[in-house]
């Protein structure tokens, strides 16, 4: 089965915009005091989407030849264009998306790109547009190389990635409740609301793209609890609607932390430790401000702490 996923998503654009319009109208009517939409937030999301799309167009020019290389020289099978091959590709890419997404919450380098998507304190359909142009730099494309080795052509890989991301638009909403038995198979708005929440019981959970079976299989699933309403955003709030600051704030914070910590082990942590390492480091630095450098604050979100053996990360290089 062959089709042009980019044309499919382009055709879906009016549907996406109609969903945003309907949701804004519906939520204003049913929850008038909640302010679940904001013009500044929505415009920031739109700007980030346009920036990301432009960057992706350029990135694919460099990345597709990489997939072609692995496809030509290392593929283990050649799949005919059938529904069976589409299902295999769909399931394989969705599993790899789960791996990528989970790594993006556990490795700060990847989180520096992904944090953009989580930095809004609102959850609505427009939040799906809140993406980062830095994903190619962070290395998202590396996670799809196994698809080329499995025997899927580069255009098929690009198509299935776009389809997976297109589906995820529809899980970014507070207007739809739980969906019963579907939540044992598919990612749903309720499941994804948990993922965007910064509550202690929800943080770093529900990484599903399309299929939620991976979360259930690998122990990262948590159900949305009506007694603990999701609170959206990141642990260290961004407090800006500037799309450039939203895109680069964590990269700047990561560079500042790398420069300020002492020792190469701690510098490695500043780049690749879980984001919680940065949050704890920033909290410690704020508590001991007279003894530490003036370095910029940045967003971090994660579940794991740095542990007793990592306290040397709090040693900063002092001015001479």
Q: Can you describe this structure?
A:
With 320 residues, the chain is mostly helical. The protein folds into two domains: 5-218, no CATH class; 243-314, no CATH class. Helices cover 55% and strands 0% of the residues. The protein is built from twelve helices and no strands. The model is unreliable at 292-313 and 315-320 (pLDDT under 50).
Q: Topology, pairings included?
A:
Layout: H1 5-30, H2 39-74, H3 83-106, H4 108-118, H5 135-138, H6 145-150, H7 154-168, H8 189-196, H9 213-218, H10 243-260, H11 264-272, H12 275-287
Helix pairs in contact: 2-7, 2-10, 3-4, 3-7, 4-10, 10-11
The biggest beta sheet is recorded as: none
Question: Quick one: overall form?
Answer: globular
The whole-number mean of residue pLDDT values reads 89
User: What is the SS-derived class?
Assistant: mainly alpha
- Sequence stretches where pLDDT stays below 50 over 5 or more residues: 292-313, 315-320
Helix content: 55-70%
Task: Give the DSSP E fraction (strand runs of 2 or more residues).
Answer: under 5%
Supply the number of helical segments.
12
Radius of gyration: 20 Å
Number of strands: 0
* Tally of discrete structural domains: 2
Q: How do the SSEs run, as a string of H and E?
A: HHHHHHHHHHHH
Termini separation comes to 65 Å
Q: Can you tag this structure with a few keywords?
A:
mainly alpha; 12 helices; membrane; oxidoreductase
How would you briefly describe this protein structure?
With 320 residues, the protein is mainly alpha-helical.
């Amino acid at each position: 089965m062959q089709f042009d996923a980019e044309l499919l998503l382009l055709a879906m654009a009016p549907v996406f915009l109609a969903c945003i319009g309907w949701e804004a109208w519906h939520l204003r009517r049913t929850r008038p005091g909640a302010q679940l939409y904001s013009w500044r937030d929505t415009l920031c999301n739109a700007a980030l989407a346009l920036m990301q799309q432009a960057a992706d167009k350029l990135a694919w020019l460099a990345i597709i030849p990489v997939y072609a290389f692995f496809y030509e020289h290392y593929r283990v099978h050649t799949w005919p264009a059938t529904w069976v091959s589409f299902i295999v590709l769909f399931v394989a890419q969705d599993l790899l998306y789960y791996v990528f997404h989970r790594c993006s919450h556990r490795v700060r380098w990847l989180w520096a790109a992904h944090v953009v998507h989580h930095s809004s304190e609102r959850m609505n359909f427009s939040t799906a547009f809140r993406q980062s142009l830095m994903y190619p730099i962070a290395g998202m494309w590396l996670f799809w190389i196994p698809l080329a080795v499995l025997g899927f052509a580069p255009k098929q890989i690009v198509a299935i990635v776009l389809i997976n991301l297109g589906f995820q638009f529809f899980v970014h909403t507070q207007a739809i409740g739980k969906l019963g038995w579907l939540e044992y198979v598919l990612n749903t708005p309720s499941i994804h609301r948990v993922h965007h929440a910064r509550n202690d019981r929800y943080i770093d959970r529900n990484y599903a793209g399309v299929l939620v079976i991976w979360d259930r299989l690998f122990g990262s699933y948590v159900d949305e609890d009506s007694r603990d309403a999701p609170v959206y955003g990141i642990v260290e709030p961004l407090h800006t609607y500037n799309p450039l600051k939203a895109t680069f704030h964590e990269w700047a914070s990561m560079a500042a932390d790398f420069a300020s910590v002492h020792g190469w082990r701690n510098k490695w942590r500043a780049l690749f430790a879980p984001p919680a390492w940065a949050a704890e480091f920033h909290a410690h630095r704020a508590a001991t401000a007279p003894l530490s450098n003036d370095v910029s604050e940045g967003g971090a979100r994660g579940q794991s702490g740095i542990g007793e053996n990592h306290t040397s990360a709090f040693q900063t290089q002092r001015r001479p």
